[in-house]
Design goal:
Order of helices and strands: HHHEEEEEEEEEEEEE
Shape: globular
Number of helices: 3
Radius of gyration: 32 Å
Largest sheet: 9 strands, mixed
Helix content: 10-25%
Oligomer: single chain
Length: about 230
């Protein structure tokens, strides 16, 4: 608020006649009528600070597995973290822990993609060992999508098409709880061989078999499948 020359002159004359008795109320009025941002020397239209990366309270990992008639899987892993990260680690799981059926199984991961909260999709050409995938910016929610082949092993002797399929996360998540959501016409039942207290671990919900969250070290599921001949 700026006073013109005549106003300052009148104020000076009043001050000379009335003294502090008049100047003090005027000063109080000037302070009250002036925006605090102006008094502080800050612009009134200053931009708000950028929003921080949101923190996800329910941290965990969910595998959505769609089993195809030939035994291949289409998988989406959704990772929710309590704190933002700049990298996500992927590693082929040790599926031999699922039993002797999978001792010689060789899983092939194709079309691996990583996407984090609207960032550009990162394609990972091959997963043969631990791979650290850098993210463009910190994120608390990461999706890993891929196709896996070789995870279904036909059982002999068994009816034609009967097979066992092993499932485990590609994402390294040692401190997270992991749940599975398995769908597809070939799926008959799920077992969790690393959880002796609940070996039959799939409950059907809307046509999908779902498991209760389990520690990452025990996150391995074996599915009973009926595949095409």
């Amino acid at each position: 608020m700026r006073l013109d020359y005549e106003s300052r002159l009148r104020l000076r004359r009043v001050g000379g006649v009335a003294g502090p008795a008049v100047l003090l109320p005027l000063a109080v009025w000037f302070y009250a009528a002036t925006p605090s941002a102006v008094l502080a020397g800050a612009p009134t239209d200053a931009p708000a600070p950028s929003d921080p990366v949101p923190v996800v309270e329910a941290a965990g990992l969910v595998l959505q597995v769609s089993v195809l008639p030939d035994g291949a899987y289409e998988v989406v892993e959704t990772v929710r973290l309590g704190e933002a990260v700049r990298t996500i680690a992927l590693s082929p799981p040790d599926v031999s822990r699922g039993g002797a059926t999978f001792a010689d199984a060789v899983l092939i991961y194709r079309d691996v993609e990583v996407e984090a909260q609207g960032q550009d999709v990162v394609a990972v050409p091959g997963i043969r060992a631990v791979v650290a995938v850098p993210l463009a910016a910190p994120a608390t929610v990461v999706e890993v999508r891929y196709r896996v082949e070789g995870a279904a092993v036909r059982t002999i002797p068994s009816p034609d098409g009967r097979a066992l399929g092993v499932m485990a996360p590609l994402t390294v998540a040692t401190d997270l709880l992991v749940g599975f959501e398995v769908s597809g016409t070939p799926v008959r039942a799920l077992t969790c061989p690393l959880l002796p207290d609940r070996p039959l671990c799939g409950a059907e919900v809307d046509g999908t078999l779902r498991t209760e969250p389990a520690p990452a070290d025990d996150a391995l599921v074996v599915a009973q499948l009926d595949l095409d001949d």
